[in-house]
Amino acid sequence: MKISVCIPCYNVENYIGECLESLLNQTLKEIEIICVDDCSTDRTLAILTRYAKCHNNIKVYRNLFNSKLIQTRKVALSHAFGNYIMFVDSDDILERNACEIAYNAIVKNNSDIVEFNCKQIDINGKEINEDKSYCNLIEGKLAGDAIFENFKNNKIGQMLWNKIYKSDIIKSAYLQISFSRLYYKEDVFLTSIIYNNIKSYYGIPDKLYKYRLHSGQSRASNITLEQFKDRCKCADIISDMIKCFYSQSDLTLLQLQMIKSKMNNWLKNSNLEELLKHKGEDGFDDYLTVFINAWINNELYDRLQYINNEDIKDIYYTQLRLVLECLHTIYEQCGSEVIKDNQAAQNLCNRFSACKKYNIDSIVKNINNDIDWRS
Q1: Of 145-154, 165-174, 345-354, where does the model show the most confidence?
Q2: 242 pLDDT exceeds 90?
Q3: Any alpha helices (H) in 207-302, and if so which ranges?
Q4: Please, are residues 120 and 134 in contact by the beta-carbon 8 Å criterion?
Q5: Cα–Cα distance between 120 and 128 in angstroms, integer?
Q6: pTM to 2 decimal places
Q7: Residues near 36 by beta carbon (within 8 Å), at least 6 away in sequence
């Protein structure tokens, strides 16, 4: 089998048929279509079952309980026998020649991964801004350190679905994931792991994927307290991942930069002001404590005194500045008693009160002037 196309499915009765038709009509016929239903409550499973009865290259599996995206993709991969893997979201569509073009590109260039461009469509399948490209990619070949550098700088994509992968590469990456669900920005951290495993990348400009943009999706939406809770859980998971990464003695400077960059981008984009609108609601302080503790990670800074490489120190200090700025923002926005009581936050400020790198001492001074720390 040349390609296994993995489709996680949940409550997509209005779109899954169109998605499957786009795969059944591919010019490349040596593909298998693996659908995993994540306990849908609508007619999704019935539609999948009907298609599977009519087409022997469609395989349908169902999770025993709602397991979310990461675990559902893992299940799909466990049933995939193709030499190459593609992911398609169940409400999206592939161009008729997508599999053939992607397959030819990855075989011809002997790459671990090939990235292609995409179009956006509305809920009715009509293309939006036809002349615009929506995916960051670099045309041609990248190898070695250049892959990490361009990923770090967001010059190549962070989505799983606009790519074709060597099967062993993507399966190896998923084996490194110790958790079954990530509550926010799954693709960013999965692609971080994937790019850490590949030696060659190839980008092509062809718009092979049609990404469905749902109503209101392009606008920043309000964040509920439950979503805030999910982000806090995500921060905790990522914190553990970062500790693990930093403890690896063979970690390269470039890999450290990549991890730092992705972590910092997550924190910057966590929409703190929006999250903090929930101050006073039941459970807010508990969630906020998890959020703060996950991002302080004092034990990471314990290593600073043993690091002689100035570039690596720079990574730590850049992260530290961002964490302190966010800590100050949290206090300014909600004046939460959680901050005053947080011993880890107080210890962090005390430790770096005289650090002049990146004006960290000035940030700490502002925090200490505003916050009356409790002993």
Answers
A1: 165-174
A2: no
A3: 225-246, 253-268, 272-275, 284-296, 298-301
A4: yes
A5: 5
A6: 0.70
A7: 6, 7, 8, 9, 60, 61, 62, 63, 72, 73, 75, 76
